[in-house]
Amino acid sequence: MLTSLRIFAVNRQKMSSLYINGKFCIFNSYILTLFPLGLIGNDIKSLHSIINPPIAKIRNIGIMAHIDAGKTTTTERILYYSGYTRSLGDVDDGDTVTDFMAQERERGITIQSAAVTFDWKGYRVNLIDTPGHVDFTLEVERCLRVLDGAVAVLDASAGVEAQTLTVWRQADKHKIPRICFLNKMDKTGASFKYAVESIREKLKAKPLLLQLPIGEAKTFKGVIDIVNKEKLLWNSNSDDGKDFERKPLLEKSDPELLKETVEARIALIEQVADLDDEFADLVLGKFSENFDLLPAEKLQTAIHRVTLALTAVPVLCGSALKNKAIQPLLDAITMYLPSPEERNYDFLQWYNGDLCALAFKVLHDKQRGPLVFTRIYSGTLKPQSAIHNINGNCTEKISRLLLPFADQHIEIPSLTAGNIALTVGLKQTATGDTLVSSKSSALAAAQRAKRREEKQQRQSCEVERLLLAGVEIPEPVFFCTIEPSSWAKQPDLDHALKCLQREDPSLKVKLDPDSGQTVLCGMGELHLEIIHDRIKREYGLETYLGPLQVAYRETIMSSARATDTLDRTLGDKQHFVSVELEARPGETPSVTPVIEYAKSVSRDLLKDSQEAVENGVHNACLQGPLLGSPIQDVTITLHSLVIHPGTSATMISACVSRCVQKVLKKADKQILEPLMHLEVTVPRDFLSPVLADLAQRRGNVQEIQTRQYNRVVIGFVPLAEIMGYSTVLRTITSGSATFVLELSTYRAMNPQDQNTLLSQKSGTM
């Protein structure tokens, strides 16, 4: 694809052509494309191939890593070298393309994933820059769901870090082929050997070394291409890193480098041969006498197969900040990561080439309304066409179709399978919704799936999962109240929160039944802080946040039994319900109550009342008797149910709910607190004060690892004890330490801590 190509949206006009400022311009109803005059002729591709390149030439990839590993800087360099930006963006200067939110530019971190479409050497690349902060893990999850490949960026001085492990596990879950890029090779303490070893030990992956660094830290000046036995050197006088030399390694000029490269290439060939039978047959057949004669193309093809099979991970290195070795990374993305047609998606067989797309992200634009990022798996998406949302069971109309370029978008007439599109006009669609061409298409797909299910004797729930593949949304661990500056602004706040919830499914909003206040539930302090800031900036609302509180849960430690009767006459109608039920500790962990029915309960009676009974149980378990926190790990057994004819479902639910609350109060109760997995990276001189501080916070240190010149403290600490930890850690380590938190589990509080917490909540302390 021509790197100089630019596409701009224009108003509908008749087809015409003319010269403007020495450039040849072609107009059509959607697009104005500008080509330099020197490129007119055989180099010009058709408009269709520009918008919809062959599926084999498409790469849908994500950039993922631990916070501060250099994801956004790497993305900026990729955009610059591909010709889609004219200057190098910098995170510290706040002028990056993908970090376009004000909050991202102020903090120098990625909060929302941003999608960018660009071309590189004839390939269409849809790239997504994802957050590294643990509070925004869901952003990574929902983007990985629609990617075909990923680039894991590692800090060469730190190797694999806490959030690297998290995103790697997410990529494993979705079976995504990966490339590792060891960034910051110019940084003091950078170690190629250490970083590679950390991939092997911590990620349990097999690294395929495709490059070796020429120098490390301050002496880093280029890389060796092991596959082609070449050295790539960057001009130190070049400001932007575009100028670099690619030279073959020769015995005369580089004897040591050549020897090291030949040894590394032989090791690479042997490693790939162990993992790929086809390549092993080739090597042992034609090239068993001399591996040097093996063509680079054969080795590259085998590496591509091994990467797709997830049996090994290609490893490259460079320095995004110093503009070194990004171009070879782009080549590796197109060479080793898969095209959409090379990924196997089981659910596509039900659609027979008809439209099947997944909405994986929603943004709200002030002018255009909701913008929905959509991955097209099969069929074609066109503007002014109706689509059916299977999850929402509704039909909507797409008014416009756009190619995403961070916060700038290019209007297009259609988009085919394998691409990522941005749709305008979908008012009901939310994250994780499956979109098809019509309701009849969805029914036909369901019928095909059912027939296959009957043949293979599959469970129906598995078929449903294939048709409606979505995103797992984690439970929030922090909550706080939010109030507008005046009651007149409450409807505006409700609208803002509704929009933000649709964008961010990990944000939960609920109404406190006692105080009537609106409660925000989020993944961490930073998450809620960002939401508060966005409400002010994007919706112009002044709001006040209450103190941050921990999302405790409750359970029971013993069995209890209770009965309840509701007898009420409303108008001329009598409502009568009598319930007897038992609550006992659950045998397996479960966030929602497990509901069982005794044999004595009439099955005919349950046919009409089961939904009302279960609604009553679930509503009662939303608020426990101790703190009003949700109840988990509990089994409710219904022993007796008497209902008079004509009794409403609402009355049944109310009686069951009251009975559940009664039985929970009878049982021995226990508060569960969120336990966080903590990883603190600290210079060895400050290790003692960090350990002493963790001991005061009820922390449990599991191990202390050595990482170059630092120590990594790994352990568990209750969430309630870690509030404001960043400020304390900064103070006791003179700003030299960093930490990462992640929810591990909920554990029972000891009696002393539980009594202290209850006293604080009741105001007796």
From TrEMBL:
Molecular function in Gene Ontology: GTP binding; GTPase activity
User: Record's SMART domains?
Assistant: EFG_C, EFG_IV
State the compartments where it is located: Mitochondrion
Give the gene name: GFM2
Where the record annotates domain Tr-type G, the positions are 56-341
State the protein's purpose.
Answer: Mitochondrial GTPase that mediates the disassembly of ribosomes from messenger RNA at the termination of mitochondrial protein biosynthesis. Acts in collaboration with MRRF. GTP hydrolysis follows the ribosome disassembly and probably occurs on the ribosome large subunit. Not involved in the GTP-dependent ribosomal translocation step during translation elongation.
PANTHER family to which the protein is assigned, alphabetical: RIBOSOME-RELEASING FACTOR 2, MITOCHONDRIAL (PTHR43261:SF1), TRANSLATION ELONGATION FACTOR G-RELATED (PTHR43261)
Swiss-Prot/TrEMBL catalytic activity: GTP + H2O = GDP + phosphate + H(+)
Query: Which InterPro entries does the entry link to?
Result: EF-G-like_DII, EFG2, EFG_II, EFG_III, EFG_III/V, EFG_V, EFG_V-like, G_TR_CS
Instruction: Provide the residue positions that the database annotates as binding GTP.
Output: 65-72, 129-133, 183-186
Read off the Gene3D superfamilies from this record. 3.30.230.10, 3.30.70.240, Elongation Factor G (Translational Gtpase), domain 3 (3.30.70.870), P-loop containing nucleotide triphosphate hydrolases (3.40.50.300), Translation factors (2.40.30.10)
* Residues spanning the membrane: 20-40
Q: Which family is this protein grouped under? A: Belongs to the TRAFAC class translation factor GTPase superfamily. Classic translation factor GTPase family. EF-G/EF-2 subfamily.
| NCBIfam families named among the record's database cross-references | small_GTP
Q: Which UniProt keywords apply?
A: GTP-binding, Hydrolase, Membrane, Mitochondrion, Nucleotide-binding, Protein biosynthesis, Transmembrane, Transmembrane helix
Any one cellular-component term (Gene Ontology) = mitochondrial matrix
Q: What is this protein called?
A: Ribosome-releasing factor 2, mitochondrial
- List the Pfam families: EF-G_D2 (PF22042), EFG_C (PF00679), EFG_III (PF14492), EFG_IV (PF03764), GTP_EFTU (PF00009)
Which processes are annotated in GO (biological process)? mitochondrial translation; ribosome disassembly
